[in-house]
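Need tokens for this chain, all 456 residues.
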Amino acid sequence: MSINPDFIPISHVLTESRPRDSMICAWEGGILVWSDFTKLISRLTGAFATGSTESAIVACANPLNFLATLLALWHCGRTPVVPSNFRPETLKQLAAHNGREIDDANVANLVGQTGPSRLGQLDPSACRLILYTSGSSGEPKWINKTLAQLDAEVTTLESLWGNAITGCGVLATVPHHHIYGLLFRLLWPLAAGRPFDCCTCASPEQLGERIARFTDHILVSSPSHLTRFPQLMELSDWKPKPRMLFSSGGPLPAETASTYRQELGDSPMEIFGSTETGGVAWRQRHGSPDEDAWTPLPGVCVNRDTDSALLLDSPFLSHQNWRMDDAISLLSDGRFRLNGRLDRIVKLEGKRLALPEMERRLESHPWVVCAAVVPLLDTSRLGAVVVPTLAGQSALNTYGQRVTKQALREHLKEAFESVLLPRRFRFVTELPLSERGKVTHQELKSLFESPDESDA
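Here are the structure tokens for all 456 residues:
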């Protein structure tokens, strides 16, 4: 498919000619135009050029500041490091190895203190971005991306859907600092010359307010948001309706896709991928018997390992024959079906979590000897099985299970988002083990078959 003539790769976008008054984004202060956007990046580049470390942590909650900081760090030869979340415990862990932390307050201060710096073309192979995500070992895992890889993916997205969304603004319900939001909400719009909105719309009311800024728009969303919206609003009242809906972060229920198809005329476009791989495949459910199958993105080749794991060759990866921990079955037409995860990483509300990471965090509490975290039967909630220390048992005896459970949840909240926290707890004298000395997850799950006080 042809590429929009206004499309410019991120590595060249600041040196190509764009109208000074073209809109970049809408934010609380109104709108930001191209000339002011380049001025912001120029001043930040001057401020970051004197840094003594190779990398810097980008923790800007404002998408505009986040994008400008990425570009400025690249322009002065430094590597942006993007945490999986902006919680204090997470930022503290990264600070020891990744230099200074840059947040919205820093951006405001730096812009007022420094003069402009000259901007040039970026070297897409030399510019790097480090994203952190949950590793299967339980330790946060860093993912190294080059600008060349990001540019390749943005170009692919534009070739597939750019012509269908010409003239659209970009609204979003997902954060900008995860790979999906970074690509679909910031980098792709910037390269294509489409304005984006800085508000992360969590409710239909917010969406309604923001649609007024962009009469023609697309929505970058997630299965959890798209599943809730029909319960909170009449989709037929969504006027004007979005030109396209994108969904990523987990599978969209078939019934949800059907609801949008009936009310808006089209189902959301689902994107399958990961932080490590970038985008892998897409699908759009049309009510056909094979609607659950995925089509690889252009240039992406999918194969199947001996244990059914997905093997990947992709222009968005640093090396080929990349193994993913997703079991698949291949179809004769080149598409594939997903058949579940092979590791201990789960997705809840579209957010990725390594269960060992949460177990380690629980075990750092003085009330916990050891812990095991398991997805419950509906896979949308977690259960935590805890062996208490003497102090933990004393807390249970004194305060009861409800207070003890809440204290452990507060401890976890320092490192994990609320939607990821275990909803149910069980306190046991020892974890159930098999004859080989391994924790038996089936027995762990069986502990939650009957409710008790800690579920309240």
